[in-house]
Design a protein that fits this description.
7-stranded mixed sheet, 2 domains, 20% strand, Penicillin-binding protein 2a (Domain 2), alpha+beta, 647 residues, Beta-lactamase
Amino acid sequence: MNPSNIKRRLWAFRGIVILVFLVFAFQLWRLQIVEGERYQMLADRNRFRLVPIEAARGVIYDRHGRILVQNIPSFSVTIIPAYLPEDEGGEMAILSRLSALLGIPATTATASADPFSPRRGLKEIVDEARDTAPYRPLTLKTNVDRDTVFIIEEEHLNLPGVLVELDSVRQYPSGELTSHIVGYMGPIPAEQAEAYTSQGYDHNDKVGLTGVERTFEEELRGSKGYRYSEVDVAGREVRAVGDPQPPLPGHNLILTMDLDLQQFTEDALRRGMEQVGSESGVAIVMNPQTGEILSFVSLPSYDNNLFASGISQGDWTRLQEDPRKPLVNHAISGQYPPGSVFKIVPAAAALEEGVINRRTTLTCQGALWLPNKYFPDDPELAQQFVCWINKYGRGHGPLNVVQAIAHSCDIFFYQVGGGYKEFQGLGLERLNEYAHAFGLGQPTGIALPGEAAGLVPTQRWKRLNYAESWTTGDTYNVAIGQGFILTTPLQLLNATAAVANGGTLYRPQLVYQVTDADGQVIRPFTPEVLGQVSVSEENLAIVREGMRAAVEWGTAPRAKLAEVTVAGKTGTAEYPGPRNEKGHLPTHAWFTAFAPVDDPEIALVVFVAGGGEGSATAVPVAAEILRYYFGLPAPQPAPTPTPGSAE
């Protein structure tokens, strides 16, 4: 070979070597100097993890400090998307294994229809998290059993990015007894996800969905803390880095309710329902001077512990398809005709408007015939309206307002509400005005979700819903709590409390105090006044006298206590359904009361759906509750109402 060619090749080789070294040097300079910070950040992301520290959710107590809701330890399984294998086959192998262990579908195509299970598969959940926060632990399942946790820990080398963490879940020791009050927690509803995340929630957080768990979510939740930890290639924590930011625990709630009274109220109501074969009922006890709810029972109920760890599809279907509707809080969501309990409203209104006074006497002959509006002189076109006592073949005779309340005379209140012949009654507008003043036709504002407004019907409402004009007969029906008017049990109790306390309408409240983790009171109880009923104390006293007479010698003798004065009002409300052999519609049983009459400590309402007469079904339940509250001995066998005394 020519020596000059050899020399050229040597120089070319040297040039290539120098060029390669220059490229390496440039690449090292670029990696270490130009992009060093970026790669250092990526390395730190792989090596360090920001771990959220969950805040302890607030505990809930009854007014005597007994625990109604607490937190118990639990295991949860999380995954960090960035630590999963890059190849799809390796990733799916891990997700498939997790699917088998946790009972979560691997892909959306195999997702369950269970509303409390993930609607999407693990693959889709992980892909979404990878795009938004690949290094943040993503909770896959909470309340994982110990055996599953042990398997995951044993297989952790084959499950990179999969972690087991100690968590907490809610436990409801009182279960069905208080579930309609305290509620339960669950995953953030999809339609509300944006609203919650804007408030600092993670997509995987659980929130209160019903009861005070929901309405006091902000107070109960607390604030998360954070800590940095160094992890190995499998995502396992090696050591903590730096000082953690500790979480702030949520505030505690002390409710106004008494757990013992709650239990007794439920037992008494359940016994009353069983005696008449009723499947639904409500009993509420309130302090009429403050609006504090002392017991609050809606039957049937449900066990909110089913939701604490994620309700199964079978349990959810069972609760949803139960015709008794155990998930519905009938005390605030059930809307029913109030029957004669409503008569305290037209009585107070007529006295205040001067339609009657305490000496005004109207006669009940058992029935009246309302003349036809267009043919008033044709008796065959007149419409008959009867009093409940008409079934005994007689009327109440002449009555004043106290006697009419005591005997619950329908004929008296037909005339007071809609007038008759020369007697001018209240009329619909004034009747409605006072119904609203007593809190009917609008939510009470109690701190529970799902409260219904009830219905105080108007002429316009009937035209829109029935394409018919309002008639005097419609006013008659409303005046005795029948026809189109609907109320919730809590609304009627609030109206009763206003009569008892002299006309103040309070907001019913369930929370007595909000305290911090150290027991310091953050928010004390303060009565909230919704309004003042525009009825004089003199006229309210007449209504109270009528209600006391109802217990002393009227329709509610079973509520009479020798030791404590009681005032009450019975109600028997017809509702659409199959008629009995005598052609009568089925009826709901109502009773509302307060005691002692001169300085009321409690007011209560009892409602038994389909329970028959209020005097026979609801009154004995209320009497049991009153005796328990005042610490009185069990009564002798209750007297049976004589024919013509029950309503």
